[in-house]
Structures are given as C-alpha cells and as structure tokens.
Automatic annotation (TrEMBL):
Record Pfam families: Sacchrp_dh_C, Sacchrp_dh_NADP
Xref: InterPro entries: AASS (IPR051168), NAD(P)-bd_dom_sf (IPR036291), Sacchrp_dh-like_C (IPR032095), Sacchrp_dh_NADP-bd (IPR005097)
Annotated protein name in UniProt: Saccharopine dehydrogenase
Residue ranges annotated for the Saccharopine dehydrogenase NADP binding domain, each copy included: 4-121
GO molecular function annotation: saccharopine dehydrogenase activity
Phylogenetic classification of the source organism: Bacteria, Pseudomonadati, Bacteroidota, Flavobacteriia, Flavobacteriales
Example GO biological process: lysine biosynthetic process via aminoadipic acid
Keyword Oxidoreductase recorded: yes
Gene Ontology annotations for the cellular component aspect, listed alphabetically: cytoplasm
Residues annotated as transmembrane: none
Length: 456
C-alpha cells in the first residue's frame, strides 16, 4: 500500500478524500488523514478500511515530522502561510508535496532543493488558482500550435449560490471564506492592461468598474477586477499580449450594493472599534455616519449614500437587519471588517438544503492568418450538497488527481511548480469532465476594446 498523508480535513478536503478513498483499492492507497481535530479527521474517513485518522498539530515538530516521514506523498490543505514547514520537512524526508495554494516566496526558494532531490512540489492546483491555469493554458497552447498570436486574455471566476438556492436580494451567500469576501480588493490598486495601455483602479472605485458576462442557461453576471492581473503574464507566456485582465464574478448588482460598505468604511480591517463587544448593529452603522441631533440612523444612511427609500439598494440594506438596536456585535476588540463579516454571516450563510455554484469564464483573443479571432470558454459547476459542494469539488479533485498522477509516475518534471504543462493539465481536465467540470469552448467574433486603435 502506498501512503498518502493529508494534512487538514476541513471543508475543502471532502471531495479530495472521497476521490482517493474510492481509488484506494484499485490503486493500493492508504490515507492518513491528520487534523488538529481528531473528530473531524474521523468524520472524513467514514470508517473506511484504507484510511486512518490522526490528531496532528503541525506546530508539534515531532508529530509533524513523524507523519511526513511515513508517507509516500503529502497533501497540505492547510492555510497558505502554514505550508512552508511541511514543505521543508518534505525536502528533508524526500517526499513529494501537493497544495492548492499560491506559490509563496518561501516555497519558491525550495525549487533548487526539489530539483536536486527529484521532488515534485505541485502548487496552485485547486480551483483559482488551479483549474483556471489548466483550462487557460490548454486553449493558449492550442492557439500557439496553430500559429496564432495571442492578443487578449481575460479570466473570470466566482463562487456563488446555485440558482435554486438564490433567494436573497444580494443574489449571494458565503460559499467559502467570508473574511476573503469582506477584504476583497484591498491592499493596493487593481492593475491590468487593456489594448496595450496599463490601467489602475483604486480600491475606492473598484466595485463601480465592472464588466458584464453572459452565460447560457444561467443569465447575466458581472465581474470586478482582481488586484493584480499581471502576475501570470510571463508564466503564461503573454508578455506581448495587448489585453490581460482577471476578475471575480458576482451576480449583476452585487458590486454596486457592496460599494456602499466600501464608501462607509465598513470593510476596513486596520483598526479596532472601541467597546465593539457591547455595540448593537444599529450603533455599528451609526459609527460611520455624521452626528445629527434629530435625524434617525436610517435617514442619515440614505442621505450619505444618496439612495431613496424605494431604491433596491435600500431594500438590500434592510434585508441584512443592519438597523437592529437589540442585536449585539458580541466581538471583543473587533475591526469594522470583522463586525461586518459577522453581520453578513447571519444573512448569507448557506442553509442545509442550499447548493453552491462555481462559474469560470475565459476570453482568448488572437490573430491567425492575418485574421483576428476569439474563443470564449465557460464552465459552470453546481454542488451536490453541503459536504460535497461545488467549491470543495473544484478545489479538492484537481489536488487528488495530481497526487495520483505523481504517485503513478505520469507527472515527472521536478521542482516547485504550478499546473501549466501538458503532462499535468491534459489528464486532469479530461478526468474532471467525469465529475461535471466541463468547459464549453465557442468561437466568437473578435471585438477587443479599441476598434479604432486610437484612443486608449
């Protein structure tokens, strides 16, 4: 039996563990599932004979090293900043490593040691990053093999609520880390390139500069810009591309409504609010509004946001119960962002019967035989239930598939890497189709953004 150590048994590990357990007999696999919570690890093994749950504290050096030494390959589903000690131990004990996280500078520094020891450290092999890389490189490589020159690449992805569970005015529920949603777009201006011109959107304007997308059978969506669209320009071989843009997908109207929180300052995570523990929701809102001796919180809110009482924006705020004077924040020394997250969590939590949805959309503009062309590639994945969500499926399955390909010698290139080579993306994308992760590619007329090629 070949031993796979899985560190972290949270929500994202559900589909990953199920996939490997289903393959465990035919592939001769034994899974060691380690988590700080033994109960959670036990729950994920589901009493399978080829799985052993263990309590694993990665800050306990002896525990961590002992578990890694016994494995043939390690999967880390820990938060990104916790991978590095696991990775260093994998170098020491000569074990391959798979993660779904972005490659950090510390991880990249292990590249030479990995190559010297013929080790594969596969990173960014989840959804975004992960499936986005693989599905994009497949089409980009096909265009280049035909002799085409890339002109435009846009990539959008979003974790949303499935249509049958979409029952609030925001058309949104938390399907993944709520904190990441509240803090989205912060930390610097969004930057991208459009028709050869560099463009920048400061955070204060981010949610009012959106692009619209249409997905057959699912309707209209919008996307706001990711913070750094240029990060993968060289990685994808797109240094000369005229347009490069990456964005996050939401239903139309979400960004305009979210911008109310941004303008008020409720998404700020840089300071602590005094007496936050005893503060009511209404007091929290009033903290961001000017003093007035007679106007109510509601009136001040509408005035400062310039919205009327019959505006759908106002209805969206009322739906969140923001003005309740009896509900307490209950968080000690909390930032505005933490308080907002708590309030939103009550309205946007997935209910037991809810399903989530992943939408991914790529646009490829290129020139071939002196003709400008475009391919649009779209993928929609709906979750099964609250355990095997679309997010867990699209994050966990590529991790599991890459792990098995490495074990079976199908992925052989050593080093710290992301899944942009054919030996990685071709078999994984093909197998993902069996699980409902299917990209529909469609030839489109190339429009671009600057038909007259004059004003930029």
């Amino acid at each position: 039996m070949r031993t796979i150590l899985i560190i972290g048994a949270g929500r994202s590990a559900s589909s990953l563990i199920q996939y490997l357990l289903n393959k465990s007999v035919s592939e001769g696999l034994h899974l060691i599932i380690g988590d700080l919570s033994l109960a959670l690890a036990e729950k994920k093994t589901n009493n399978h004979p080829n799985a052993t749950p263990i309590a694993l504290d990665i800050f306990d050096e002896n525990q961590r090293k002992n578990a890694i030494e016994k494995a043939d390959i390690v999967i880390s589903m820990l938060p990104a900043h916790l991978h590095i000690e696991v990775a260093r131990d994998c170098v020491v004990y000569k074990k391959h490593l798979v993660t779904a996280s972005y490659i950090s500078d510390a991880m990249q520094e292990l590249d030479e040691a990995c190559k010297e020891n013929n080790l594969i450290f596969m990173n960014e092999i989840g959804l975004d990053p992960g499936i986005d890389h693989m599905s994009a490189m497949k089409v980009i490589d096909e265009i280049r093999e035909k002799g085409g020159k890339m002109l435009l690449f846009e990539s959008f992805c979003g974790g949303l609520v499935a249509p049958e569970s979409d029952n609030n005015l925001w058309n949104y529920k938390f399907t993944w880390a709520p904190r990441n949603v509240v803090l989205a777009g912060q930390g610097g201006a969004a930057k991208f390139i459009q028709e050869g011109a560099y463009k920048y959107i400061p955070y204060v304007n981010l949610f009012r500069r959106t692009e619209f997308l249409e997905v057959e059978d699912y309707g209209k969506f919008e996307a706001y810009s990711n913070r750094d669209s240029l990060k993968y320009r060289s990685v994808y071989g797109l240094d000369d591309v005229l347009t490069l843009y990456r964005g996050t997908i939401r239903r139309v109207g979400f960004s305009k409504a979210w911008n109310m929180f941004v303008q008020l300052g409720m998404t700020d995570d840089s300071y602590v609010m005094e007496n936050s523990e005893n503060m009511s929701y209404r007091q929290f809102v009033n903290s961001f509004l000017p003093y007035h001796p007679t106007d109510s919180v509601e009136i001040k809110m509408r005035l400062i946001l310039k919205i009327d009482q019959d505006d759908i924006m106002w209805d969206k705020l009322l739906e969140l119960d923001l003005f309740n004077r009896n509900k307490k924040v209950g968080l000690k020394d909390a930032t505005p962002a933490q308080i907002l997250e708590k309030i939103l969590g009550e309205s946007w939590a997935l209910q037991p019967d809810d399903k989530d949805m992943i939408v991914m959309y790529h646009k490829f503009g290129y020139k071939l035989n002196n003709e400008e062309r475009q391919i649009d590639s779209k993928m929609v994945c709906i979750g099964d239930d609250q355990t095997y969500t679309a997010m867990a499926k699209t994050v966990g399955l590529p991790v599991a598939m890459a792990t098995l390909l490495i074990l079976n010698g199908k992925i052989t290139t050593p080093g710290v890497q992301l899944p942009i080579r054919k030996e990685v993306y071709l078999p994984i994308l093909k197998e993902l189709e069996e699980y409902g992760v299917v990209f529909n590619e469609q030839a489109m007329p190339y429009i671009g953004y600057n038909p007259d090629k004059v004003f930029r």
